[in-house]
């Protein structure tokens, strides 16, 4: 078993986003979203239209212009039934100003769409990465807990009706997020009605999973999944996709990230990838479920191309060069996103993949985001570039893919039931516990009092740690939907119906909790399970 390198601060980034990182493959001006240089994602109306474009690629190249010149080279890679990736090689003089490449790339995309009526979208292959909640300050008690954490089972158990899981983290009280609203999402009440079924499949598009995490070994709740990474953003090297979503860590020392986040394991653990009610470790929302890790993020992040492939595969749709997933996900959890509204011109690949996944019967649940570095006018900016450049929550409708049509959007609340200080806001589908690591509480752990952060506690590598963010809120919703589908199997394959049930089951937050809006209210798993 691999060892956790050392105890680290318990409050980690909780939202994976497209536009926050500036340590990418190309030097970019302030406020420019990171992208893979020279790559465009293109969607055609049909396979026939795509093949026609491929067959006249040279003629297409000669008709395109950037800074008055045609691209030196244009190559195509088929990425879906009617989708492709175009790699554009510009003449050296066109790239004399490297900061202008994105503008040139977007101009080529506009020309492609204008010159071919069968091109439905064309946009850069954006890079995804981790964006921490703003002003994040770890608490003074914020260290990870070992896998053998113990308790006398006396803190929480006597206060709640059966069934109460015997997992130490729950018994200690660290799973505050499972208590009834406004504190938590009422998993404790839901377990009296339904504990889940392994027939329900939840795909987690994230950094992969640590399969030898002690509380996951032998659980039977997690599969090997799939690794869709095709580019190591940290090194700039191409890598091969593999049928194994193991998370080897996402540290990128070359870019200043010395520690791995184990973010995918943390998210999947909350849903139920670990062993619940087994007398050790933590408790997941669904005690019985099949979690399928889909690795789309690695060192330095990942690409929109790989995220889209992960969505399609999880939904049982074809992905070129990859064996088809025969067990379609009922729920697709995406704790990721980026700045910008979900429009065809900027995020058409996401729109199409999500629509196809929903038609296949998968529910898509997406994090609302943890704010952005924006200037006074609401535009992206680089930290320190101006006095008005601040990291602040924004309307979630300025993020993608959470603002794409048909997704279940999730904002984050703290232990009080208030919209978390870092969470994006607006008319989201639902708000769920995401934690606040600035808040602490004393707990009795292994016979000693410890002051720990009130983030969301879950599995990280070989131990347990707290994270905060809309990333942590999102798996609570996915887990609750998994319980609801186990109780109401007729809901399966009906994403519109499930979204309506989630909205209808929301409970009002405390007065003054959401001055800028948190949708219809707080997640209550009991109300969701009992919807008619």
Brief characterization of the structure:
The protein has 532 residues and is an alpha/beta fold. The chain contains eleven helices and 23 strands. Strand 20 (436-445) and strand 21 form a beta hairpin.
SSE arrangement:
Elements: E1 16-17, E2 35-44, H1 47-55, H2 57-63, E3 73-80, E4 83-89, H3 101-115, E5 119-130, H4 168-172, H5 187-190, E6 196-206, E7 226-227, E8 231-232, E9 237-238, H6 263-271, E10 288-295, E11 302-303, H7 304-314, E12 331-334, E13 336-339, H8 344-359, E14 363-367, E15 372-374, E16 390-392, E17 399-400, E18 408-413, E19 430-433, E20 436-445, E21 448-454, E22 456-460, E23 463-467, H9 470-487, H10 495-504, H11 525-529
Parallel strand pairs: 1-13, 6-10, 6-12, 7-10, 12-14, 14-18, 18-19
Antiparallel strand pairs: 1-5, 2-4, 2-5, 3-4, 5-11, 8-9, 13-17, 15-16, 20-21, 22-23
Helix pairs in contact: 6-9, 7-8
Classify the helix fraction into a percent range: 10-25%
Number of helices: 11
| Estimated share of beta-strand residues | 15-25%
Alpha-carbon distance between the two ends: 46 Å
Number of strands: 23
Shape: globular
Report on the structure:
With 532 residues, the chain is α/β, with parallel strands linked by helices. It is built from 11 helices and 23 strands. 20% of the residues lie in helices and 23% in strands. Strands 1, 2, 3, 4, 5, 11, 13 and 17 form an 8-stranded mixed β-sheet that branches. The chain has a 7-stranded parallel β-sheet with strand order 7-10-6-12-14-18-19, sandwiched between helices. A two-stranded antiparallel sheet has the order 8-9. Helix 6 runs parallel beside helix 9 (470-487) and helix 7 (304-314) runs parallel beside helix 8. The termini are far apart.
